[in-house]
Design goal:
single chain; globular; disordered N terminus; 6 helices; 19% helix
Length: 408
């Protein structure tokens, strides 16, 4: 067992959106079990290959040559296989100009593990939903399969992408959970765009998401208390297996296979007697990540590509503020990776919901940190008992949390 120093913080400021999916009871997992904190919890009153330029015949001017569009194979005799998982899609301008001096656009499509990738450049006079839907059809024909949904993260392109997906009969979903795609995009910035003969280093930044101001969380999403926690990576993988087996609600991201098993991953644990119901409602949200707003003393939950919620509040004492700051520091060391766990109480043997999350800004257009670069000093959390148990540090500070703090 390792020593740990995670603060236990409890709040009743939790809930789910009323428009979320219906709740279905699931069998409990055998995953994370919250270790008992030294101070008791307090429940509160709710408040494509690169081609070099070539010399033109009229003076030797270097011309930017875009990647060729993917060749269209013969149409399959059978309809495409309907997959049970999502693909990720990006359609946006790039910092490159074509031979006309006009900005080039690009379509990127991949699956969640990048077992296949498709890239295709577009001139700026073909940027519409009709051209995009034709390109999507070509990719589906080439793969002989169609995804459950297309996830995308650029809210500015929502209209074109949504219409194109509707035209090919596939649901689209605006989501921050496009880390596979953005990691690939990071690579292409350095290895494709910057060495393209038409690269324009003065081009304006590529469009991203536009986050809204955090709104009060609906009552249906509230738990009874919560805590800063941590799990070693091996424990996170065990919980992920429960989600894959559909024993608990949740959603996953691809984890770095080179990250050491003992790397501590920070998280937020929510406790409520209605854990299964809360986990079911939370499943209806497209969770992005959780961050700490130290100025407001608030946990901020991001959903979709633009929505943010005041997930919980904590008293801004010196001790609690320091614990929140350390939690964020450990999260930064693991590239923004963290998790949300929902269970009945601190001593529960299983979780009812488990989500692997990642700060979207940490994976937007920059490389992720490798496992060798991550600190594991145990300053925020450690392993308590056997693997798979949610860890908290001894001597944790409890605080009155929520919009309406408990008296005293």
């Amino acid at each position: 067992a390792r020593a740990s120093h995670v603060c236990v913080i409890h709040s009743s400021d939790m809930s789910t959106l009323a428009a979320a999916a219906c709740v279905a009871r699931v069998a409990p997992s055998t995953g994370a079990r919250a270790a008992r904190a030294r101070t008791p919890a307090r429940s509160l009153t709710p408040a494509a290959p690169l081609r070099r330029g070539r010399r033109s015949g009229d003076g030797g001017r270097l011309m930017a040559i875009p990647e060729p569009a993917a060749s269209t194979p013969a149409a399959p005799t059978a309809p495409p296989v309907e997959l049970s998982y999502d693909w990720q899609l990006d359609f946006c301008s790039r910092p490159m100009k074509d031979e006309r001096g006009k900005k080039m656009w690009e379509l990127l499509i991949c699956d969640e593990t990048r077992t296949f990738e498709h890239s295709e450049f577009f001139p700026n006079n073909r940027i519409n939903s009709v051209e995009l839907s034709k390109a999507i059809d070509r990719v589906i024909a080439a793969q002989g399969a169609k995804p459950r949904r297309f996830k995308f993260f650029r809210s500015q392109m929502m209209t074109i992408i949504t219409r194109a997906c509707n035209d090919v009969g596939i649901e689209s979903l605006a989501s921050r959970r496009c880390q596979t795609l953005t990691t690939w995009l990071d690579w292409r910035v350095e290895n494709v765009y910057k060495i393209h003969p038409g690269y324009d280093g003065q081009a304006s930044p590529m469009m991203g998401f536009e986050a809204s101001s955090p709104r009060p969380l609906p009552d249906a999403l509230r738990g009874e208390s919560w805590a800063f926690v941590a799990l070693p990576l091996v424990g996170v993988r065990e919980e992920a297996e429960q989600v894959k087996a559909r024993r608990v609600f949740g959603d996953l991201l691809e984890l770095d296979p080179n990250m050491p098993d003992d790397t501590l991953i920070p998280g937020i644990a929510v406790y409520t007697k209605r854990a299964a119901a809360l986990a079911g409602w939370t499943k209806g949200l497209e969770l992005g990540g959780i961050t700490v707003d130290l100025d407001m003393g608030t946990l901020i939950l991001d959903t979709g590509v633009a929505d943010s919620w005041q997930y919980a509040r904590f008293k801004q004492t010196k001790a609690l503020t320091q614990e929140a700051k350390e939690w964020e520091e450990v999260k930064e060391k693991v590239g923004g990776l963290h998790f949300l766990a929902i269970q009945t109480d601190e001593d529960a043997e299983s979780t009812d919901g488990f989500w692997i999350l990642q700060d979207f800004t940490n994976s937007k257009f920059c490389a992720q940190r490798s496992g060798a670069e991550q600190g594991r000093d145990g300053s925020v959390g450690g392993v308590v008992g056997g693997l798979g148990r949610v860890a908290r540090g001894p001597g944790s500070t409890k605080g009155g949390l929520g919009v309406n703090p408990a008296p005293g």
